Automatic annotation (TrEMBL):
This is Cellulase family glycosylhydrolase. One of its GO terms (biological process) is polysaccharide catabolic process. Belongs to the glycosyl hydrolase 5 (cellulase A) family. It comes from Streptomyces himalayensis subsp. himalayensis. Gene3D superfamilies: 3.40.50.880, Glycosidases (3.20.20.80). Keywords: Glycosidase, Hydrolase. Residues 44-291 form the Glycoside hydrolase family domain. One of its GO terms (molecular function) is hydrolase activity, hydrolyzing O-glycosyl compounds. It comes from the Bacteria. InterPro entries: Class_I_gatase-like, GH, Glyco_hydro_5.
Amino acid sequence: MQRTSARLTSDATPVTWLGANYWSRTGGPLMWRSYDPDVVTEELRVLRDHGLNMTRSFYYWPDFMPTPYTVDEEKCALFADFLDRHQELGMTTVPTFIVGHMSGENWDPSWRGGRDLYSDVWMVARQAWFAGQMVRRFKEHPAVAGWLVSNEMPIYGNRTQDRETVSSWAQIIADAVRAAGGTQPFSLGEGAWGRENTGNENGFSVRYTAEICDFLGPHVYRMEDDPVRQHHAAAWVCELTGTFGRPVVLEEFGVSSDFVSGPNAAHYYRQVLHNSLLAGATGWIAWNNTDYDNLKHQPPYLHHAFEMHFGLTDAKGTAKPQLRELKDFAELLEKVDFGRTRRADTDTAVVISSYLDTEYPFTRPEDADHIYRTARQAWVAGRLAGLAPAVTRESDDLPGEARLYLVPSTKQLLSPTWYELEDRARAGATVYVSYCPGYHDEQRGPWYAHLNEMFGVEHQLEYGLVDPIEDDEVAFTFVRPFGNLPQGARLTFRAAGTENSRVFLPVEPTDAEVLAVDAHGRPALLLRRVGEGSVILSTYPLEHMAAVTPRVNPEDGVTLYDALGAHAEVRRPVTVADPRVVVDRLEHEDGRVFVWLVSQARQEIMVKPVVEGDATLYDLDGTPADTVCLPERGVRVLELRGA
């Protein structure tokens, strides 16, 4: 199964954006009122000297468009100087038109008068006119690398949730940019926050954005309760976003030094950069270039103090730990010639229910949130098991072919999808499904088209009731060998969930083998052989329980997935026994294979990778790498030769 590695190109050459969202420390969003060209050059040089090659910049809307029919020529002259300074340093920038929302405050031009940004025809025309004006002025400048419509438009213009209206607004702005001669890569700057990625309806559609834009740009600032999920939060969104076939640029990510220590900021940046790369991101723009301690009396920093300290440098221009991580990352990208690599194919796919992105009659918003959280937990566990899972969307008819399909803690799929999954098992795949009746009590139960027949069981459910998990810990004891697990192996899982979801599915096997039983001797994991493959049922919502449990990863779901991979004969050229280490690969077009080892451990660890066949691992300097030392939450990249 192929994983997306789509890339931005310039003159048919792959382009990798590695940069920072930029406001000068002289004024933040008001920098154009106090523009200091020498400070700008100094700030850009620090970024350039740490390996960054671009910025994302902003036309602060109230300043650049003081009336509905004029632009401020003085501000445009300053922006031209800003572009020149990028060019002098060999850097580029991606200007953003409608700003709009920024750092905890919305900044309206004085003439807006409360007009709706999407549905008011005059207001949409003024936005399109402004975008066209900016493109005509600056489209020929070699420092302009692309165009963005907005900064997080769902926050700024959230008065409508009408997809048709929002999509029409986006189309009109896109047409204005192209009509004005903007040939550079174009996107919306909306954060890729559509329902397809979040389960929440805000009028934006990632699918439609992919139709009219050249790249997709997630913005990710998660608050989590599990370090491993936090380290993969941005990567997960990149994986989801990549299903639409466009290049993925992690357009915003970062940390405030008020929320995290220097060493932990470095760990976070390292994890986000490498994990998102392995999840398909091919560009990164950190938030943001500098701190703003001198602007404490100016909104938004007046009322959002933590917004002062997202910088890669402090307010004096000194590099913070996260900028040094970017420098290391830039050097690595050059060593592996990243622009000419692609993600290795995978044999594993996590199935994303269409109930995440589609509103079906008489369903609840909680259904989408449940799908998002459990699918993410399954994807993370799959990565820790060395399966390098892709995602396949039910809404796209499950594109691609995998040896192992993970359908985690699932309440709802469309009826034909259940039959399609069984057909794929019949053709040789392994389809794993874990039961869950959902968060809430509305039509609580399995919406499976043919549960008994598909899994070779007779369920014993009572109408309107659930079977609660009695124990604080769920134990699976294997009554026969499975995958790489011997008979007698025992896996444990912390029980968690709501009164509706902390439940199990009582079944009696008919045409299925019992692989494992729970602590009460009931079937917990069952296998039914179907044609050349098999379907496997967990009667417990393992991924859901993990997804709602703080600081749970890595947990025994990783061990189960490892066994599923062995059973399905998933190809894993390099593995590591320690579940705290993610293993994945990039392939260079010249045949070289690079292996990433990404540690989630809070201390230095030594691992001995296992390599299939006669292949051998080497450090990038050519030294054999039989045993690898990984520093705290560290990353090592090796070359696999002879694969």
